[in-house]
Amino acid sequence: MINGKKDNTYLLVETFQANHLHTMKELIFKIILSYIVMVEKQASPVFGYMTRKQEIKVFRGIRRDYDLKNELILYVDEDDNYNEFVYDVNTRTKTLVDIPKSFADKQKCTRNDYFGKTSYIKRVTNKYYFIAFEDCPSTVLFKVKKSK
């Protein structure tokens, strides 16, 4: 009792948990997903994320981009001949991003050896990932069909 009135603060906590706990868990997951771990003692970078079941998934390779909304990781896999992949956290599938030389030769902004290093996930549909490049106009996109 405070000044003769019943203290109902505990009700606020219960209301907060009922209405916002799921949102808080989602936010924490996204923060963990975006956390990058660089291990100095290894020759290659290591990064990863924690699943909702609190399992840890670790990748050896070079992270290019995260799409937090769709929970995707664009990275170069050191354990798979340095190929570039999109990893879908929800389905746990990785999709090869194989940009052919014929595509790179058509665009002025991709006629160099480092254009792939500036790649990022621009857009996602039910069937495709659209990969863009920082040095290119927004109309230059490479379409990658999702793995099943």
Distance between the termini: 60 Å
Structural class: alpha+beta
- The count of DSSP E runs of length 2 or more, i.e. the number of strands, is 8
Give the topology string: H per helix, E per strand: HEEEEEHEEE
Strand order of the largest sheet: 1-2-3-4-5
Helix segment count? 2
Assembly category = single chain
- Quote the average pLDDT: 75
SSE inventory with pairings:
Elements: H1 9-34, E1 46-50, E2 56-67, E3 72-77, E4 83-88, E5 93-97, H2 101-106, E6 119-124, E7 128-133, E8 142-145
Keywords:
34% strand, 8 strands, three-stranded antiparallel sheet
Structure explained in plain terms:
- Strand 2 (about 55-65) and strand 3 (about 70-75) form a beta hairpin.
- Mean pLDDT is about 75; it is low at about 10-15 and about 35-40.
- This protein has helices at about 10-35, 100-105; strands at about 45-50, 55-65, 70-75, 85-90, 95, 120-125, 130-135, 140-145.
- Strands 1-2-3-4-5 form a five-stranded antiparallel β-sheet, covered by helices on one side. The protein has a three-stranded antiparallel β-sheet with strand order 6-7-8, with no helix packed on it.
- By secondary structure, the chain is of the alpha+beta class.
- The protein is globular and about 80 Å long.
- It contains two helices and eight strands.
